[in-house]
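Residues determine shape. Next comes a sample protein:
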Amino acid sequence: MDTFSAGRTHPRRTPRRDTGSDIPMVRWPTLVEPSVSLPGRVDVTAAAAGLRHLDASTEPALVFSQLAAVWVPAVCDDVIIDLVENGHGYRIRQPAVPAPVPPLPPNVPASRSRSDGPVLGAHTVTVSIDSDGAAAVGLGFTGTLICSWSDGYRPVTADASLIGLAVDYAVALIHRERLTSKAAGLQGPAQTLSNTLSRNRRIASAVGVVMALHHVDQTQAMNLLIRISERTDRDLQDVADSVIQTRTVPRIRPH
């Protein structure tokens, strides 16, 4: 495979004029041909730095508001973000000065699936925000992000890809925070359940010791432990631990 062929023309063979011989000399074109114009409107460095400093949050409005503040003016001149969550819709725009919403390109429906990718317009890029896949666990929201340029700049595919990746990153950031919050909320009940199971196992072990020592059934052994707990003013688990460790039953005084 010719590893130098991607994005370049084939090498040109030109005769060496300094010696006058017919030995060809290979000259490779430069990495960027002079005829190829590089995008000069989008500040990729500033956009990437802004993405790295986005504050994580469970609220889409907060994360996308930060994204809009980064995108103007690093990427475009105007950002309009429409979000819908739990049947409620709201709009984020940067800058906040009211302006006409740029129209979608011809023959492009206003609502599309995320797999369709960004849509290039004459001076706009439209990206769908779709997290319906997480709706089953209460994380779903949808929307549209529109970037527009007022200086006549025409976005290219690389610009649209950058904006699409930024939207994906913002959605992933929100999902991560929501999953982390949900896991933290479940940690308390899980610990309580674990403590309850441990307590029940220790009490059951103590009941078995009492049954073996006094030749009584399970109900009688449990009632004996409860009476010891009440008359000694000790927690039932504490009494059970004492029985397990000493293999004896504490004496109790009659009322």
Summary: The helical segments are 44-52, 60-74, 157-214, 218-232, 236-246.
